[in-house]
Structures are given as structure tokens and as C-alpha cells.
């Protein structure tokens, strides 16, 4: 993939908001000198330190004489990156760079975003997680142990003062990126998600914390590997597991009361349950449940605009009713309810969920998960109608929208797409399963079978498709266009909760950026290369929704929309070198000592 794309540089900062604690204008206080400064990824500039900084911070004998710009450093780093023999080696190179120079790491990705996204995240990050114990060089993040619950509070406390942490990503490693139970290696998904929050929304990297809850693992390969670094025991469950999770949550809330907690890649039986338990208590989020649902709903809204169908009239079939599928169902249901005034129960009647036994029915009883129950249909409505396979359901429902989260490849067959196309003018078809080998259908086949009528979005990037000489862009339902902006909005507003209304506001803000609104041949969602601008719009919408519901604890939020936008921009961390100002260690903050966030503990 081409690496020539250059992401839009950050907008000029506005001094009127330079007094804010998260302001990104002006110099950075730094108490480190000499080799300690060069060893701090937060402050290190390598050959980019100015002549004055080299004298002030005792670096003159530690660096080559030629002072280089960040652009020159990026050029050198990209040349080094390009020599790595495979994607996993490139991922490892980037990890090393992150541990040496934060600004250079993020700037390199920004300048080559299209090329590097799959290296720093899925699918290559999945390979890195599977090989975590074999590639291990330096610990990053916080490791909590289910056999040592009494130490959870103390172990979390070393990462900063109450006001120092804004964003926590936590996983138990049970269901990682479609590759299953990876035990302690799950720490890397927490790290990767935080990289995306910084890259895509400017959440300050030294104010974040990656956490893994080591509950053991049911992965026999890991249990039998002498190099495996996690607990060598079967994965805990039940009361012991719940107590561990709760101890973490309560400790995190007490230690870092302003932090937003992002749950990531928990197993099917726990993800929704944990989210439902803590969501009424604090600002928290699960990307597998809510993020996937939000970005998919935004794509649906854009598709409905193109096809001229109202949200309250559409019929949706979701094929694959696990965490992602039911998360999407919930987001769509809640949006229908908000738009129409219907109850959630009535809104749910516009969705048909299909899983291994076919259409979910009330008679499936105990086989239904907690998240599936609201979408189970009355058996009497389908007496004499086959509901055991997808094609039969399509014939019965005649949906406008078909969503795949099944991880069952090639299940959106020619017959399925043709049947759907025979009932609606512009079928909306989203094969979202990842990685690409698991997608339900190839976009070019969907386009061909629907005779160019289908509006398509996928879970991975695909090239444009064509029919009768006309080209159509394939949108990618990339959660990274959505969850970072939501998190930024919660962080800046210091919202007590992340409400349904705030999520719907985020979805509408993302949908409003759809290129298809201006040209139906364009993608239903904006490209990830524009993600920082998208995040500004999403954060602004989330902040306003938080204010409308009285959930914001930040009271100095500007009233005007233009001022709010600049207020948001000023507090977004940029991959650029800021001047350093020497301060004494005696009076320095933990930030000035380089002791905040995941990079702060050696």
C-alpha cells in the first residue's frame, strides 16, 4: 500500500486556551538532564534537541553535532522501518521506537498512516500478541494478578496522582482480535488501543494507562510454553473473577477519579455483563460492544440517506449475534427509539438476529445470551417458515440492511445477495468480520451480484469496486474513526457517565462526515486518514450532549461552537517537539520527571 499519504498537520494553536492544564502550546517543564533525558521517551528528541537545549540539559557530549529537524528524523526512521523483512518485524521496530521517542513514533505513523495502520494494529498486532512472551523485551503497562487481589490498589497507585490519568484501557485477554485467549499477552491490545487514542484523537500519551487482568488462560499452547510470562493456570471464572474485576474498577475509580475506563476484548460471557454493571456508575466504554455498534450505525445512517429510507422504516438482519453483533443491534435499536419515540422493545422489532441455531427465537431459552434475549422472536410468528439458514431469513424478512459479524467466510452467497436485491432498491450490505479471510463476502462479488446496487462497508480495507464502468468506493467500518473521539469528548468534559444520548451524538457527528452524502459513489464513512479532524467533530458533539444531560464536571467549556472547537484542538496532543524548560526536581511534577503513564515506570 502506498506510503505517500501525508496526514493533515495540526491546526494552529490558539493562545486564548493556553492556560488549560492539557494545553499543548508553549514549553514543557522538564526536570531530567543528561542520559536520563535521552532515556525518557516522553521528552527525548534524539538529534532534534536544539543547541540551547543541549547546553541547558547537559547533552552536548551525548549526541552527534548535527541538529536535525523532525522531518529529517522521520525520513531516517522510515528508511529503517522499510528494511524490516516482514510485518511482525516492522511492528517490533515500531514498539522499540515508541520506547525511545514518543513524538517521532507518532509522527512517523501520521506521515505514513495508510501503510502503517495494519502494522501497529490489526492484523499485525494480533501476531505480536500471539508472540508476546517470545518477543518480550521491556514491560509496558500494568499487570494485575488474580491470585494477588489484595495488591491491586497498591499496584495501580504507582502510576500517578488522582489528576494524572485520563484514559485507562483494560483487558483480561480472553477474546483478542478474533484470535481468542491470549492471556497476559493481552496487555498489547491495551497498549495498541491507547496508541490509537493518541494518534487519532490527541489523548495525551503520558496520561494514559494500559492494564491487563491476568486471570490465567485456557490456551493450552501458552500453558505448555516454558517462555510464557503469565499465570500458568486455567482461566478463573465465577465469583473469584468478578471480585477481581470489581477490585480493579473500584481501585481505579478511587485512585484516578477523573479517568475514563475502556474495556477491551473481554470474553463473550463477560463483555456485556461487565459493561452493563459499571456503565450506570462511571464513564466507561467497551469498543467491541459500543464502538463497533457506533461506527456501523453511522455507516447505516449514511446508507439510508443514499437509499432514501427512514431509520424508523428499515429492516435489519444481523448475521452473527456475539458481542459485536448484539452491540450493533443495541446501537441501532437505541437510535431508532431516540428518533421515533418508540420504546426500546418496539424498536428491537426492526432487527432480526441470526446465530448458529438460525434466527434467534424465544424457544431457544437458556441457549440465548443475556445480550441476545431482547432480540429473540416469538416462535408463533414463524410457524411453517424455515428460519434455520440465512437465505430463509432473508426471504422472510426482506431486509434493507444485512450485517455480518459471524466470522464465517463466504456466507453472504450469490443467492443471499440476489434475494435481498430483489426486494429493495439499494441493499446495504456490511461483511464486517475480521481478518479478511473471515469476511462473509468479497465486496466485488457483492457489487457484481447486486448489479452495482449494493451500498457496501467492510471490517477491513478493500479497494474500490466497479460495475458497468462505474466505480464505487468501499467504506471501512473502522472503529478508530469513532472510539478515540468519544473518549476525548468524555475526557475533556470530565463526564460522569457515557450516556446513550452521548453515543448517538457521536454517531451522528461521524455520519455527517460521510463522503456519500455528497456523492453516492463515495464511501459511506470517511477515510481513517482524516481521523483527527473527525475526532474533533465527535468530541465536540459528545461534550455538548454531556452538557445537555448535566453530566459534565468540567465547568469552563466555551459556549460558542467555534470556540469549543478550538478549545478541543488546543488540548489534543500533537506529534511535534515542544521547547523544554528546565525545572528543579524538588518542585517538579511527576509529568516533569517523566513518571506519568505507561512509559513512566521502568
From TrEMBL:
Divalent metal cations. Prefers magnesium or manganese. Residues 1-20 are annotated as: Disordered. SMART domains: malic, Malic_M. One of its GO terms (biological process) is malate metabolic process. A divalent metal cation binds at residues 264-265, 288. Gene3D superfamilies: Malic enzyme, N-terminal domain, NAD(P)-binding Rossmann-like Domain. Coiled coil: none annotated. (S)-malate binds at residues 434, 478. One of its GO terms (molecular function) is metal ion binding. It catalyses: oxaloacetate + H(+) = pyruvate + CO2; (S)-malate + NAD(+) = pyruvate + CO2 + NADH. Residues 98-279 form the Malic enzyme N-terminal domain. One of its GO terms (cellular component) is mitochondrion. Its cofactor is Mn(2+); Mg(2+). Residues 289-547 form the Malic enzyme NAD-binding domain. The active site is at 121 (proton donor), 193 (proton acceptor). Keywords: Metal-binding, NAD, Oxidoreductase. Belongs to the malic enzymes family. This is Malic enzyme. It comes from Glarea lozoyensis (strain ATCC 20868 / MF5171).
Amino acid at each position: 500500500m502506498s506510503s505517500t499519504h501525508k496526514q493533515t498537520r495540526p491546526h494552529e494553536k490558539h493562545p486564548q486556551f493556553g492556560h488549560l492544564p492539557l494545553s499543548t502550546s508553549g514549553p514543557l517543564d522538564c526536570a531530567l538532564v543528561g542520559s536520563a533525558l535521552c532515556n525518557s521517551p516522553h521528552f527525548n528528541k534524539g538529534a532534534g534537541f536544539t543547541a540551547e537545549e543541549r547546553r541547558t540539559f547537559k547533552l552536548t557530549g551525548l549526541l552527534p553535532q548535527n541538529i536535525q529537524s523532525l522531518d529529517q528524523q522521520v525520513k531516517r526512521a522510515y528508511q529503517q522501518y522499510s528494511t524490516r523483512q516482514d510485518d511482525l518485524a516492522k511492528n517490533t521496530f515500531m514498539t522499540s521506537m515508541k520506547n525511545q521517542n514518543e513524538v517521532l513514533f507518532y509522527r512517523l505513523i501520521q506521515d505514513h498512516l495508510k501503510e502503517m495502520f495494519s502494522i501497529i494494529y490489526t492484523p499485525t498486532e494480533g501476531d505480536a500478541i500471539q508472540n508476546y512472551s517470545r518477543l518480550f523485551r521491556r514491560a509496558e503497562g500494568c499487570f494485575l494478578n488474580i491470585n494477588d487481589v489484595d495488591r491491586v490498589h497498591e499496584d495501580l497507585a504507582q502510576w500517578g496522582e488522582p489528576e494524572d490519568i485520563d484514559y485507562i484501557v483494560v483487558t483480561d485477554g480472553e477474546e483478542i482480535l478474533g484470535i481468542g485467549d491470549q492471556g497476559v499477552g493481552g496487555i498489547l491490545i491495551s497498549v495498541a488501543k491507547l496508541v490509537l487514542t493518541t494518534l487519532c484523537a490527541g489523548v495525551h500519551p503520558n496520561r494514559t494507562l494500559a492494564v491487563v487482568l491476568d486471570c490465567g488462560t485456557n490456551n493450552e499452547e501458552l500453558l505448555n510454553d516454558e517462555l510464557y510470562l503469565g499465570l500458568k493456570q486455567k482461566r478463573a471464572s465465577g465469583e473469584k473473577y468478578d471480585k477481581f474485576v470489581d477490585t480493579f474498577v473500584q481501585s481505579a475509580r478511587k485512585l484516578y477519579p477523573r479517568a475514563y475506563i475502556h474495556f477491551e476484548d473481554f470474553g463473550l460471557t463477560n463483555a456485556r455483563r461487565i459493561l452493563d454493571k459499571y456503565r450506570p456508575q462511571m464513564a466507561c466504554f467497551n469498543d467491541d460492544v459500543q464502538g463497533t455498534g457506533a461506527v456501523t450505525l453511522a455507516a447505516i445512517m449514511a446508507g439510508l440517506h443514499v437509499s432514501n429510507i427512514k431509520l424508523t422504516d428499515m429492516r435489519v438482519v444481523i448475521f452473527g449475534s456475539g458481542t459485536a453483533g448484539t452491540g450493533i443491534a443495541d446501537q441501532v435499536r437505541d437510535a431508532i427509539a431516540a428518533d421515533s419515540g418508540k420504546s426500546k422493545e418496539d424498536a428491537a422489532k426492526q432487527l432480526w438476529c441470526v446465530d448458529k441455531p438460525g434466527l434467534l427465537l424465544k424457544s431457544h431459552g437458556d441457549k440465548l445470551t443475556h445480550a441476545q434475549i431482547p432480540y429473540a422472536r416469538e416462535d408463533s410468528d414463524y410457524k411453517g417458515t424455515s428460519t434455520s439458514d440465512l437465505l430463509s431469513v432473508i426471504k422472510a424478512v426482506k431486509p434493507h440492511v444485512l450485517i455480518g459479524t459471524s466470522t464465517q467466510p463466504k456466507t453472504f452467497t450469490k443467492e443471499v445477495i440476489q434475494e435481498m436485491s430483489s426486494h429493495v432498491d439499494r441493499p446495504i450490505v456490511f461483511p464486517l468480520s475480521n481478518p479478511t479471510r473471515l469476511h462473509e463476502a468479497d465486496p466485488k462479488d457483492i457489487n457484481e451480484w447486486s448489479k452495482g446496487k449494493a451500498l457496501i462497508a467492510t471490517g477491513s480495507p478493500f479497494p474500490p469496486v466497479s460495475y458497468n464502468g462505474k466505480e464505487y468506493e468501499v467504506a471501512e467500518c473502522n472503529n478508530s474513526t469513532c472510539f478515540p473521539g468519544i473518549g476525548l469528548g468524555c475526557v475533556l468534559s470530565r463526564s460522569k457517565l457515557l450516556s446513550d444520548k452521548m453515543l448517538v451524538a457521536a454517531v451522528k457527528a461521524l455520519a455527517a462526515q460521510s463522503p456519500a452524502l455528497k456523492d453516492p459513489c463515495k464511501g459511506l464513512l470517511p477515510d481513517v486518514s482524516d481521523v483527527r479532524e473527525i475526532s474533533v467533530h465527535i468530541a465536540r458533539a459528545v461534550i455538548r450532549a454531556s452538557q445537555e444531560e448535566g453530566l459534565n464536571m468540567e465547568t469552563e467549556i466555551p459556549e460558542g461552537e467555534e470556540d469549543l472547537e478550538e478549545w478541543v484542538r488546543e488540548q489534543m496532543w500533537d506529534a511535534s517537539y515542544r521547547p523544554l524548560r528546565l525545572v528543579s526536581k524538588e518542585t517538579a511534577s511527576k509529568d516533569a520527571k517523566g513518571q506519568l503513564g505507561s512509559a513512566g515506570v521502568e
